[in-house]
Each structure stands twice: as C-alpha cells, then as structure tokens.
Write a structure and sequence with these properties.
- This protein is of the alpha+beta class and 203 residues long.
- Helices cover 29% and strands 30% of the residues.
- The chain has 4 helices and 8 strands.
- A hairpin with a 6-residue loop joins strand 4 and strand 5.
Length: 203
C-alpha cells in the first residue's frame, strides 16, 4: 500500500548507535537519490524537525556496519570484489516506517524480495569468508533494510513528517542502486566508492 506506516518495536539501532566505525552502504543512482533527498528538504521547509545521520551522507541502504577495530583494508578489498560481481538493480519502496525508539527514526522501507535478500546474503557470505563480522543489527536474522529520512525529532512532528513523506514520488516505482560506498561515522567521512559493474548477482 502506498505510504503505509509501520512501526518496528524495540529496535534500538541506527547508524549512530556505535561510538565510531565503518559502514558499507548501497548508494542510489542520481535521479533516485535526488528524489529521496528532496523529502528531507520538504520536511525542513515545513518547519518540522529535520536531522539526518549526517547531512553530508547521501541517501543509502546499509548492507553492514562495523566497529572501528575492523580490518578496513580487508573490508575495502572484499567490498570492491563484491561490487564487481553485482549489476545495478532496482528496489521498490512500499511503506513509511519508524523504529519505536527515543531517536524517532523515520525511514523508507523497501519490499524485501528474494533477489534483495540474496544480494544481502551474498555479501554476508563474502564477509564470513574474509572473517569480517558486522555489528549485530546487520547480521542475518537481524537486518532491517531501510533508507533513513530523518531522526531525533519530537513526537509531535512524527505525524506531519510522515504526511510529507507519504506524498513523495518514491513509492511503488523502481529506485536504482548503482554503487557501494565505504564510509566512516560519526562524523561521516567518505572513504571509497565501488561501482556495481554487472555479473552473476543480478536482478
């Protein structure tokens, strides 16, 4: 259903939950990225609270997050190799959702297709082979794919913010992902970008 609102119970994780660390983010192609980013601008223009994980970080879907002690060079190498096997692909946002926590995270929730999960699991297999373990909330059985719109707003802003998100032209249409970013947070720092170059894992 277009703009359906969901709430995911006691789920404390956001990108800022770790003190510091790395994340592997699937990045959107320019047109899709601009449509998602505009939602935040509309929220702010309406006088509602708008805060992102980091305003310099573009819309994304996180595949895995790691504490600062991870071997970053190995992580970059396996991510680059994985990107070479993966073709650009589309996801479809079907609902607005929020994590029922004090951080009041509002996000776009994609349809979790067999293909999307296969991509996620494929990356998990690559990480396991390289002896790289992501944080708990990005391990199999805990991962909730999402694209954050805003967070840390007052409860009074949740309803009006969701109305703005609901009207955004991002639901029930293909939204292309075409690269993977390796980033550091917080504060956000871009480290490397790996283009999806096509290959075996393809939607």
């Amino acid at each position: 259903m277009l703009g359906q609102v969901e709430s995911h119970g006691d789920f404390p994780f956001t990108l800022s939950s770790f003190m510091d660390g790395y994340a592997i983010e699937l990045g959107f192609a320019p047109k899709a990225s601009a449509k998602i980013a505009k939602i935040g601008l509309n929220v702010a223009a309406a006088g509602l609270h708008y805060e992102y994980v980091d305003d310099t970080n573009k819309p994304h879907l996180t595949l895995a997050a790691f504490e600062s002690t991870v071997d970053a060079d190995r992580l970059a190498a396996v991510t680059a190799e994985f990107a070479r096997t993966l073709a650009p692909f589309d996801i479809t946002f079907t609902s607005i959702a929020q994590f029922a926590t004090a951080q009041n995270v509002i996000y776009l929730a994609p349809l979790i297709t067999a293909d999307l999960f296969a991509i996620y699991q494929g990356f998990q297999d690559v990480l396991a082979a390289a002896q790289l373990e992501p944080g708990y909330y990005h391990r199999p059985g805990s991962w909730v794919p999402h694209t954050t719109i805003t967070m840390k707003g007052p409860k009074a802003d949740l309803g009006p913010t969701m109305e703005i998100v609901r009207k955004a032209p991002v639901f029930n249409r293909p939204m292309r992902l075409d690269h993977i970013n390796l980033v550091w947070y917080p504060p956000f720092k871009f480290i490397d970008r790996f283009e999806l170059q096509g290959g075996q894992k393809k939607i």
